[in-house]
Amino acid sequence: MLDLSLIEVKTEKETQDFGKFIIEPLDQGYGHTIGNSLRRVLLTSLSGAAITQLKISGVRHQFTSLSGMTEDIVEFILNLKKVRLIVSSDKPVKLTLDVKGLKEVKAKDIEKAAGVEIINADLILAHLADSKSKLTAHLIAENGTGYSLAEERRSGEIGVIPIDANFSPVVSVNYKVEATRVGRLTNYDKLTLEVTTDGTIKPSQAVKQAAKILVDHFSIIHQPPVAGKRQKVAEKTPISDDLLKTSLEELDLPVRLTNSLKSGKVETIGDFLAKDRKDLLKMKNMGPKSINLVEEKLKEKGISVK
């Protein structure tokens, strides 16, 4: 087997939405093993945000039209599905689109909400035909993974239209495996990975997240956790009393997250480590994403929470 310390990950090219990476040398066969595994996780398991519901004033269902709008409601919904955005909250957020007059309606016309950023702001959503035209829509955006069907979010409220949502921030992944040389030996693999995202995440970050998801799953197989217990392990050195007493504010967490922890009487690193994950999830405004963020910050200080 190849000495794993010889493996290098090189970034050949990267923009906000495209990246080309080379991983070499790999033992023969591992190019396809790693390439296919990363591709599957990149396309299916990364979290992102999407608009999942809307309610349009004067419209009862999607199979109709709105006076003064060139597009019918189905076309309008298809355009809303293309809106790419970043939602920092773990909870669904409400957005409003309120425009009138002769106008080309774009994604940037959606009123800004705290913790929400629209990436493709120039995306055209609809066209209003004259000065009397008006479009008022209330939207729901939220985080998720994979593809979610509208049927999963049916509600009894009249006028609320659920939307099929593609949460994945990764648009496409291609990989190629070629032979490469180590010394005189040529039977090693060179993996070239090309990742295209929607701009809400850089390709290198997407690859790292996918790799971490795989590592987390393999680690459970390698070292199965004790049933019903949340193991807390300190990497490198034991956790000192001073570190346990360190305020969570020093981890440079979002203010909203710090306040949520404080309201649950979790103010120090020691308080956080003493809490069971189930208890943390019961706290107001605390979701898996928030807990993972705290754990990432702890990892920077040499503390790994498993």
From TrEMBL:
One GO BP on record is:
DNA-templated transcription
EC?
2.7.7.6
Q: Give the residue ranges for region: Alpha C-terminal domain (alpha-CTD).
A: 241-306
What's its catalytic activity? RNA(n) + a ribonucleoside 5'-triphosphate = RNA(n+1) + diphosphate
> Mind telling me which Pfam families this protein's record contains?
RNA_pol_A_bac (PF01000), RNA_pol_A_CTD (PF03118), RNA_pol_L (PF01193)
Keywords on record: DNA-directed RNA polymerase, Nucleotidyltransferase, Transcription, Transferase
Family membership noted in the UniProt record: Belongs to the RNA polymerase alpha chain family.
Q: How does it assemble?
A: Homodimer. The RNAP catalytic core consists of 2 alpha, 1 beta, 1 beta' and 1 omega subunit. When a sigma factor is associated with the core the holoenzyme is formed, which can initiate transcription.
Query: Per its UniProt record, what SMART domains does this chain match?
Result: RPOLD
Q: Where is the DNA-directed RNA polymerase RpoA/D/Rpb3-type domain?
A: 18-224
Q: What species is given as this protein's source?
A: Candidatus Curtissbacteria bacterium GW2011_GWC2_38_9
Q: Which InterPro entries match?
A: DNA-dir_RNA_pol_insert (IPR011262), DNA-dir_RNA_pol_RpoA/D/Rpb3 (IPR011263), DNA-dir_RpoA (IPR011773), RBP11-like (IPR036603), RNAP_asu_C (IPR011260), RNApol_insert_sf (IPR036643)
Q: What is known of its domains?
A: The N-terminal domain is essential for RNAP assembly and basal transcription, whereas the C-terminal domain is involved in interaction with transcriptional regulators and with upstream promoter elements.
Q: Which GO terms describe its cellular component?
A: cytoplasm; DNA-directed RNA polymerase complex
- Its job: DNA-dependent RNA polymerase catalyzes the transcription of DNA into RNA using the four ribonucleoside triphosphates as substrates.
The segment annotated Alpha N-terminal domain (alpha-NTD) runs over 1-234
Alphabetical list of HAMAP family matching this protein: RNApol_bact_RpoA
The UniProt GO MF terms for this protein read: DNA binding; DNA-directed RNA polymerase activity; protein dimerization activity
- Does this entry carry the keyword Transcription? yes
* Protein name (database record): DNA-directed RNA polymerase subunit alpha
